[in-house]
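Hi R.,

Here's the chain you asked about this morning:
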Amino acid sequence: MGIKEEKAAVRAEMGLFRIRPEERMEVSEAIRDRLIAIESWRAARTVLLYAPLPDEPDMFILPRGDKRFCYPRYHTDRGYGSARVDDPAELTPGKFGVLEPDSSIPEMPASEVDLILLPGVAFDQDCYRLGRGRGFYDRWLLTLPGGKIGVGFDHQLLDRVPREPHDVKLDGVIVPSRFVGDGAG
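And here is the predicted structure, written out as tokens:
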């Protein structure tokens, strides 16, 4: 089995899991509590979040405090960028049906982003992430200097995910039961 087939098999296996809305909120709160306890969260001034899909942890519940939040926005000509959004209600459906900042909101320079929170299909103990398969996020991550933390559910943390040389290693992964990694604690 080749790497592409291995990735497809993990994606198919993860796709079998279903989470009830009340359980999703409970585990999202546990992730939030772990996240706000780590130094990289406390030190970050600007955090790049994501608008969660129904099968991803809900990070809209994060406390803003003195932090600026920005969200990814897809550009057909150059991949992803991000824009500051003060209220998630300002997000609108984008290219892939995912909520994102409207095109009228100015771009946030990548150099200003201190911490990036990333969803994924699966993560592993070495802090690699398996995405949805298009590669857009991985290419974008290579251009972002901020710390990178994956967030997911316990069943998404595997011993090892299939990876290729271009896959980006994260600084850490947070699931409801624990934090793995050495770059964010």
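One quick note: Residues 45 and 171 are 17 Å apart (CA to CA).

Cheers,
M.
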